[in-house]
Design goal:
By secondary structure, the chain is an alpha+beta fold. Helices cover 36% and strands 22% of the residues. It has a single domain, classed as 60s Ribosomal Protein L30, Chain: A, CATH 3.30.1330. A hairpin with a 2-residue loop joins strand 2 and strand 3.
Length: 156
């Protein structure tokens, strides 16, 4: 506890020094975008994934066929495509679905939860990652599902 107090006193005594140290830490952290043609391109100004601090942060991955650019027909097809796309992005980043620690599933119809859960279970490791699943979300382009995720990179 006292070390935290000393740190707070040090920072309040020298704000310019604290900002310089913060800038130095940020410049030491690498942030690398990852992208693959095996998944649909980003639909806006974001990356498919960012690798930083030994983790891979994947943007919302939709149920779009990367070869045609067309969403799958129905929730089951879109859920499977979204998970295959997520797997492709993780592979391009140097990790896999087996290394997932957190996912968030956004979907448009709460009645689709059982179907989504069944498809999701086929792709997830044991134990499965932590997960959130907000329903009744409005997604662009008539999409029914989007899944974002965080995975761990293997140790070097």
């Amino acid at each position: 506890m006292t070390s935290g107090i000393r740190e707070a006193e040090r920072l309040s005594a020298s704000p310019a020094s604290a900002l310089a140290q913060s800038d130095e830490r940020q410049s030491q952290m690498t942030r690398k975008a990852t992208a693959t043609d095996s998944a649909p391109p980003a639909l806006g100004p974001y990356s498919q994934a960012i690798v930083a601090g030994g983790l891979v942060f994947c943007s919302g991955t939709a149920g779009i066929d990367p070869a045609t650019g067309v969403p799958g027909d129905g929730i089951e097809a879109q859920a499977e495509l979204a998970l295959r796309n997520l797997d492709s992005i993780l592979t391009a980043a140097g990790t896999s679905l087996q290394a997932l620690v957190k996912t968030t599933i956004f979907y448009t119809n709460a009645e689709d939860f059982a179907t989504i859960n069944a498809v999701y279970a086929r792709f997830m490791p044991d134990p499965p990652p932590a997960r959130s699943a907000p329903a009744n979300v409005v997604l662009p382009r008539g999409l029914l599902i989007s899944i974002d995720a965080i995975a761990v990179l293997p140790s070097a």
